[in-house]
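Suppose a colleague, Dr. K., hands you the sequence of a protein chain of 150 amino acids and asks what its three-dimensional shape might be. Before reaching for any lab equipment, you can write down a predicted structure in token form. Begin with the sequence itself:
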Amino acid sequence: MKARRHFTILDIIAGQRVGTQEELCDLLKQRGFDVTQATVSRDIKELKLVKTADGAGYRYALPEGTPMKNTFDRMQRIFRDLVINCDCSENIIVIKTIAAGAQSVASVIDAYENHHILGTVAGDDTIIVVVRSAIAVAEVMNLFNSLLNA
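The predicted structure, expressed as tokens, is then:
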């Protein structure tokens, strides 16, 4: 649970401006995590997040020099923790996740930058992955299945 929460925090701060622990608490609650401000404070310390100035005030971010690209290992952990199954039709792959898991999974898929994947659309527990061609679907499905079964 803690690892999923940490991944979600990184996903949140990568996608939007978060200036306070209370804001981060609220955003985590919207994604299905029952957290307190004290838990978020510990998470911020463990993730080594820093507050940086931007035009509108301060926001949480990773320290300078920390790569935001997702590694294959991270993608593997997220798939194992959040994905229930994958299926495909033509050049579309549908991924089912646990409740509130779709956005985190879609984020790591997009960051992985596979040249066969045009993009993702995530709801609460379902992701649509658009693959460049129907021929490439088998290769992408093999990747996703290997992540699930690792």
